[in-house]
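Before a colleague's protein record goes any further, I have to sign it off. What it holds is a sequence and that sequence's fold in token form. Would you go through it and say whether the fold makes sense for this chain? The record follows directly below this note.
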Amino acid sequence: MKKKFLRWIKAAGVRAIKTVAETAIATIGTSAVINEVDWKLVVSASLLSGLISLLISIKGLPEIKE
């Protein structure tokens, strides 16, 4: 059970980190000039997407074969 949980944590963590990075890139990319980037929005949207990714991973991860 512990080994399965550790595999899930690793896979879900990797997926969440990728999601956070993708969201940050997309949010930053919506600004025409780097000085116009709303960094609070970037951080909050990225963290929220990471949390949602972890919650969705509870349903199951295709990376982990049963």
